C-alpha cells in the first residue's frame, strides 16, 4: 500500500495534470487515514486551497484558512520553528541570515526540509493578499526562493515563484515581474504544469499592458487563451477572456474587447461568487471611460466599490478609487477627482503598493496643478520625492521627474527646466507609456507656447517631429486611441501650413481607424471635423492668398485647445451626437461623365439644386478615387457629396447635413452593389451605349431607397 507521503506526491501530480476529480478523491482518502500527521494534514489544506485557485478563485476559503491557522499554532517542533524564525528574520538582514538558514537546512534531512517548506507555504498562502505589506512580503518571498532553490522541491518552488510574480505586479514593479514570470514560465513548462504556464502568461499580459506594450500584451493574452481552451477549469477560461478584454480595451480596440467580454460572461454563469461580476464591472468601467461614456463609467466604478466594500479585495478597491478620480478629472470636476485619488492613495499606502502610490501622487500633483493650487501640488511633490529617494525603481523615478516638470511648466521662468526634464525622459526611453506619452505632449505644449512668443518656425518643425515620434510609438505598441488623437492633432498642424489635402487625408485615416476599433463617438467627432474642414476649403484658399498672421491661424485651428485636451487624456467627445442627413439625389455616371441613372429624394429637381454648378465639381474629384473600394467626400455650397467607384461606374450620393450616417449607409450600398447581379446588367447597357430599361431602373431605385433612405 502506498505511503501517505507517496499519495501526497501523487496528489500534486494530479494538480499539475488538472485531474481535479482524482485529486479530490485522493486527498479525502489521505485526510481520513488514521496515520496522518499534523504536517501531512497541513499539506492537504495547502493543496485544497491551491485547487480552489484553479476552479473558483473567489471561492470560500475561510474554513480552510481557519484550520490552517490553528494547525500553525501547535505544529512546529523546536528545530522547524527555529528555521522558520530565521527565515522571517532573513527578510530584514538577508546577507547574514540567509546563508545561516540555508546552511542549517542543508544539515537537515529531506523530511525536515520539506516540513519547513510546508510551514512557509502555509504562512504565505492567501495570507499575504489580505494582511501584509507588499514590499516586505516581496523581500520575504525572494528570501525563501533563494534558500530553497536547490532543495529539489520544484512544485513548491514554482508556487512561491508564482506568488512573487503577482506580488510584484501588485506593487507595480512590472519589469521585475516580467523577469520572474520568465523564470516561472520555463519551470512550469519543464514540469508541464499548465496552471502555472497560464499564470505566467497572464502575468506577462498584465505587466506589458502596464508598460504600454499593448501588442505584446495581446499576444501573451492570446497564448493564455489557447492554453485555457484546453484546460478543465471554467475559471481559467473566464479569466483568460477577461484578460484579453482588458488588453484590448487599453489598446483602444473596443470591438475585440467586447467580443471577449461576451465570451467571458458565458463562463461566468457557472462560477460561484459575485466577485466575478464586480471585476467585470471594472472592465466595463474602463470601456466606458475610453468610449467617452463618463457617466456610465462612474456607475461601473461605484458598483465595484459596493460589490467589494466588505471584502478583502483591496487592490480592486484601490484601482476603482483611482479610476473614479481619473474619470472625474475627464469631466472637469477636479474636487471630486482629488477626493477619490486621495482614497486610492490611502489603500495603496496601507499595503505599500509603492509604484501605485507614486501613481496616486502623480495624479494628485497633476490635478492640483490644474487647479493652480500649487501649495498642495508641492506638498505631494515633496512626498513623491521622498518615496523616490527610498525606492530605487525606474518607474517611481519617472513619475517623480514628470511630476516635477508638470509642476514647473506653469511658471514661464521655469519652463526651460520643465522642457529639459521632458526631453530627458524621452531620451532615456524608459518603457512606461504614461510617462512617455505625457512627456511628449507636455513638451509639445511648451513648444507651441514658445512658438507663439517667438514666431520661430523651427519650433513647429520640432513640434511635428515630436508628434511623429509619439505616433510611431503609439502605432508600434498598438495604442490605437492615442494614435487616433495624434492624427487629429496632426490635421491641425497641416492646416497651420495651409496643407488642407494632407489634413483631410489624415482625418480620413483617423476616422477609418476609429471605425475599425469600435470607437464610435470618436469616429463621429472626426467625421464632423472632416465636414467642417470641407466647408472651409474656400476660406482656407482665401486665407492662404492673404497670408494671414500666425495669430489668425492659431485662432482658426484651435490647435492649443486640441493639444490641451489630448494631454489630459483625449479629445473631449462626450457630447457628440449623431445627426441624420437630408437626402437630395443619387446618380451613377460612366468614365466619360455621362449620367446613366439618377434618382431624386427631394421635391427639388436637379436643376433647382444648381446641378450644373455641382456636377463639374464632382467630375473633378473622381480622379482622387484610386481604387474601387475608396470613398471620398465633397462639399459644394450647402451640398455634401459622397463618391465611390465600382466596376468602372461612379456612384454619387448628394445630401445636406453631416456625413457620418450618410457615409455608413453609402458604404453598405456600395458593398452590396459591387457584388450584385444588377451591376453586370447595368454595365451591359453602358458598354453597348444603350439606355437602361424600365425594369432595371425600378430595381435600382428600390435598391437605392433600401440603403440610403
Number of strands: 5
Structural class: mainly alpha
> Shape, please?
globular
Low-confidence stretches: none
Average pLDDT for all residues: 83
| SS field, number of helical segments | 35
The main sheet comes to: 5 strands, antiparallel
* Helical residue percent band: over 70%
What strand order characterises the main sheet? 2-1-5-4-3
Work out the radius of gyration: 32 Å
Beta-strand content: 5-15%
Instruction: Report, as a whole number of angstroms, the end-to-end distance.
Output: 81 Å
How are the SSEs ordered, and which strands pair?
Layout: H1 4-16, H2 20-31, H3 38-55, H4 62-74, H5 78-90, H6 94-106, H7 110-124, H8 127-131, H9 134-148, H10 154-171, H11 174-191, H12 194-211, H13 214-230, H14 234-251, H15 254-268, H16 275-291, H17 294-307, H18 314-330, H19 334-350, H20 354-370, H21 374-390, H22 394-409, H23 415-428, H24 433-454, H25 457-476, H26 480-496, H27 500-516, H28 520-535, H29 537-546, H30 550-557, H31 559-568, E1 582-589, E2 595-600, H32 611-621, E3 631-636, E4 639-646, E5 649-656, H33 660-675, H34 677-687, H35 694-708
Antiparallel strand pairs: 1-2, 1-5, 3-4, 4-5
Amino acid at each position: 500500500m502506498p505511503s501517505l507521503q507517496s499519495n501526497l506526491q501523487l496528489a500534486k501530480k494530479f494538480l499539475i495534470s488538472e485531474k481535479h476529480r482524482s485529486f479530490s478523491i485522493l486527498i479525502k482518502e489521505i485526510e481520513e487515514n488514521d496515520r496522518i500527521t499534523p504536517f501531512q494534514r497541513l499539506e492537504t489544506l495547502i493543496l485544497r486551497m491551491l485547487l480552489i485557485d484553479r476552479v473558483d478563485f473567489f471561492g470560500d476559503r475561510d474554513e480552510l484558512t481557519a484550520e490552517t491557522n490553528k494547525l500553525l499554532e501547535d505544529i512546529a517542533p523546536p528545530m522547524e520553528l527555529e528555521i522558520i524564525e530565521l527565515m522571517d528574520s532573513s527578510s530584514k538582514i538577508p546577507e547574514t541570515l540567509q546563508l545561516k538558514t540555508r546552511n542549517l537546512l542543508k544539515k537537515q534531512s529531506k523530511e525536515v526540509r520539506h516540513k519547513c517548506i510546508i510551514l512557509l507555504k502555509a504562512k504565505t498562502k492567501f495570507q499575504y493578499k489580505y494582511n501584509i505589506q507588499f514590499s516586505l512580503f516581496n523581500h520575504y518571498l525572494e528570501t525563501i526562493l533563494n534558500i530553497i532553490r536547490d532543495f529539489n522541491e520544484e512544485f513548491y518552488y514554482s508556487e512561491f515563484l508564482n506568488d512573487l510574480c503577482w506580488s510584484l505586479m501588485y506593487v507595480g514593479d512590472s519589469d521585475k515581474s516580467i523577469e520572474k514570470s520568465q523564470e516561472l514560465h520555463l519551470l512550469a513548462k519543464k514540469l508541464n504544469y499548465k496552471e502555472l504556464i497560464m499564470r505566467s502568461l497572464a502575468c506577462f499580459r498584465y505587466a506589458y499592458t502596464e508598460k504600454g506594450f499593448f501588442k505584446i500584451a495581446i499576444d501573451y493574452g492570446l497564448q493564455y487563451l489557447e492554453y485555457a481552451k484546453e484546460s478543465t477549469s471554467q475559471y481559467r477560461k473566464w479569466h483568460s477572456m477577461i484578460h484579453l478584454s482588458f488588453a484590448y480595451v487599453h489598446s483602444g480596440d473596443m470591438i475585440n474587447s467586447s467580443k471577449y467580454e461576451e465570451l467571458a460572461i458565458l463562463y461566468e454563469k457557472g462560477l460561484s461568487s459575485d466577485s466575478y461580476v464586480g471585476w467585470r464591472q471594472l472592465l466595463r468601467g474602463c470601456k466606458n471611460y475610453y468610449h467617452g461614456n463618463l457617466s456610465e463609467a462612474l456607475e461601473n466604478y461605484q458598483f465595484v466599490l459596493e460589490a467589494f466594500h466588505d471584502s478583502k479585495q483591496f487592490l480592486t478597491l484601490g484601482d476603482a478609487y483611482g479610476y473614479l478620480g481619473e474619470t472625474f478629472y475627464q469631466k472637469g470636476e477636479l474636487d471630486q477627482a482629488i477626493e477619490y485619488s486621495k482614497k486610492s492613495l490611502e489603500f495603496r499606502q496601507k499595503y505599500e503598493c509603492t509604484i501605485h502610490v507614486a501613481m496616486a501622487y502623480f495624479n494628485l500633483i497633476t490635478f492640483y496643478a490644474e487647479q493652480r493650487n500649487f501649495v498642495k501640488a508641492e506638498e505631494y511633490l515633496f512626498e513623491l520625492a521622498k518615496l523616490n529617494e527610498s525606492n530605487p525603481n525606474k518607474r517611481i523615478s519617472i513619475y517623480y521627474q514628470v511630476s516635477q516638470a508638470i509642476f514647473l511648466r506653469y511658471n514661464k521662468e521655469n519652463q526651460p527646466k520643465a522642457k529639459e526634464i521632458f526631453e530627458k525622459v524621452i531620451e532615456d526611453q524608459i518603457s512606461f507609456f504614461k510617462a512617455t506619452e505625457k512627456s511628449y505632449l507636455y513638451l509639445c505644449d511648451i513648444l507651441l507656447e514658445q512658438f507663439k512668443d517667438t514666431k520661430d518656425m523651427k519650433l513647429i518643425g520640432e513640434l511635428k517631429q515630436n508628434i511623429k515620434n509619439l505616433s510611431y510609438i503609439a502605432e508600434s505598441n498598438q495604442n490605437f486611441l492615442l494614435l487616433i488623437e495624434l492624427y487629429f492633432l496632426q490635421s491641425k498642424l497641416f492646416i497651420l501650413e495651409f496643407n488642407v489635402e494632407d489634413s483631410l487625408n489624415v482625418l480620413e485615416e483617423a476616422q477609418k481607424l476609429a471605425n475599425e476599433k469600435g470607437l464610435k463617438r470618436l469616429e463621429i467627432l472626426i467625421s464632423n471635423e472632416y465636414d467642417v474642414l470641407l466647408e472651409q476649403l474656400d476660406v482656407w484658399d482665401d486665407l492662404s492668398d492673404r497670408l494671414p498672421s500666425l495669430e489668425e491661424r492659431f485662432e482658426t485651428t484651435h490647435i492649443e485647445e486640441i493639444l490641451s485636451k489630448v494631454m489630459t487624456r483625449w479629445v473631449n467627445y462626450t457630447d457628440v451626437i449623431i445627426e441624420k442627413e437630408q437626402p437630395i439625389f443619387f446618380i451613377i455616371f460612366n468614365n466619360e461623365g455621362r449620367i446613366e441613372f439618377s434618382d431624386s429624394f427631394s421635391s427639388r429637381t436637379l436643376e433647382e439644386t444648381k446641378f450644373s454648378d455641382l456636377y463639374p465639381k464632382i467630375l473633378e474629384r473622381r480622379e482622387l478615387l484610386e481604387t474601387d473600394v475608396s470613398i471620398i467626400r465633397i462639399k459644394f455650397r450647402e451640398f455634401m457629396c459622397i463618391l465611390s467607384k465600382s466596376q468602372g461606374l461612379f456612384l454619387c450620393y448628394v445630401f445636406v447635413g453631416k456625413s457620418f450616417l450618410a457615409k455608413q449607409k453609402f458604404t453598405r450600398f456600395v458593398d452590396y452593389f459591387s457584388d450584385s447581379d444588377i451591376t453586370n446588367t447595368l454595365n451591359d447597357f453602358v458598354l453597348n451605349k444603350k439606355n437602361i430599361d424600365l425594369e432595371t431602373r425600378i430595381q435600382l431605385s428600390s435598391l437605392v431607397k433600401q440603403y440610403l433612405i
